[in-house]
Amino acid sequence: MTDFRIAPSILAADFARLGEEVKNVIAAGADMIHFDVMDNHYVPNLSMGPMFCEAIRPYTTAPIDVHLMVKPVDRIIPDFAKAGANIITFHPEASEHIDRSLGLIKEHGCKAGLVFNPATPLHYLDYVLDKIDMILLMSVNPGYGGQSFIPGVLAKAKAARARIDTYTAQTGREIWLEIDGGVNTANIAEIAAAGIDTFVAGSAIFGKPDYKAVIDQMRAELAK
Ligand SMILES: O=C(CO)[C@@H](O)[C@H](O)COP(=O)(O)O
């Protein structure tokens, strides 16, 4: 039985009440907090830096999953680790030295992962799987919340799942497979069937008044 994780993206939360939003969404049954970092350079938007991460850290003991949409990558990694991040992922196209960036995340005591845009091939995993704890597949082009899910990513999810399962069978080491963008109660079951175990959802959760009702419905869909 797969362990499914739901990771609300606080990009869609009320920024004026961020700490409270974090606390409420975890109380509503979320497993971790997805934290989107946009730099108006690698992606066309600007969001939150390490100070925001530090500010929300006291509001939950759940993992904070930091998705870096920034270029360059390495300079900001130690700052997020110090600010309380538990998982840090980055886009391979944004790093000059992918292996070094993964190593840097680990050296700072965090779980590490790579993020794949809808058109980015999985071959970046080829020589670094042993340093990866989570693979994040973007199911929208990064930069904005509230976009529609790109169905072509389901084929990539199946390919990534096959690679993970082979690797886990050989090594006994688990790698989480996360998806991000356009996830909602209507499509979560189909996405899980493609092999995803960790679901980022922003507007689908924070866009509704009752976070628990949405998360419960997501879990009910996953249990079907
Ligand atoms: O990283 C991103 C967008 O770049 C995502 O985390 C979105 O914030 C997800 O938002 P929804 O599509 O669920 O509204």
Protein architecture, described:
With 224 residues, this protein is of the alpha/beta class. The chain has one domain: TIM Barrel (Alpha-Beta Barrel). It is built from 8 helices and 8 strands; from the N terminus they run E-H-E-H-E-H-E-H-E-E-H-E-H-E-H-H. It has an 8-stranded parallel beta sheet. Helix 3 (77-82) links the parallel strand 3 (64-69) and strand 4 (87-90). The longest helix is centred in the C-terminal third of the chain and has 19 residues, at 153-171. It is globular, with a radius of gyration of 16 Å. The protein starts with a strand and ends with a helix. The mean pLDDT is 98. The structure holds 5-O-phosphono-D-xylulose.
